[in-house]
Specification:
This is XRE family transcriptional regulator. The protein has about 150 residues and is an alpha/beta fold. It contains six helices and seven strands. A hairpin with a 2-residue loop joins β4 and β5. The two termini are about 30 Å apart.
Length: about 150
């Protein structure tokens, strides 16, 4: 599903997560992100600041402590190759995430976060933006708010 989502993007790909390590470790996904960026698709990746208070709290909430920050640092190592690709922008945020957001144009995969549950064990919802003000638009607005307060890697 992730490959299909990102391959279909024509204008924009967005990732908003704390670590999203499963994406960074998938060489096929990494190739798709690079290919889409080279084809003119804007790729924006937002990961949690491994030194931030929100990541520390999420690690504590999930009972994994410092490993949450370690996952982000690991993902950043994997994303290093993408940082050299024009059209890819990777940033860090220190915000509370209620959902992880994975976007390809108007199609979104939303991973709601549940207290004490690792994101990988929570459900994923598929939404499609059909008009302003719909459920997908709400998640896209949230992405933009986090982007606005993020910092470059």
């Amino acid at each position: 599903m992730w490959h299909q989502l990102f391959r279909a993007a024509r204008d924009e790909i967005g990732v908003l997560a704390y670590a999203g390590l499963f994406l960074a470790e998938d060489m096929g996904i990494m190739r798709v992100l690079a290919q889409r960026a080279r084809a003119g698709v804007a790729v924006r990746i937002l990961l949690g600041d491994p030194d931030g208070a929100c990541v520390a709290e999420r690690g504590s909430d999930e009972g994994v402590g410092e490993s949450m920050a370690a996952k982000i640092r690991n993902a950043l190592v994997h994303y290093r190759a993408l940082r050299e690709v024009a059209g890819v922008d990777i940033r860090l945020h220190d915000t509370v995430l209620y959902n992880s957001v994975y976007r390809a144009d108007d199609d979104l995969l939303i991973n709601p976060h549940a207290y004490g549950i690792a994101a990988a064990h929570a459900p994923v919802l598929h939404l499609r933006r059909t008009e302003d003000g719909d459920m997908a638009s709400t998640h896209l607005e949230s992405f933009e708010r986090v982007w606005a307060c993020s910092s470059s890697v």
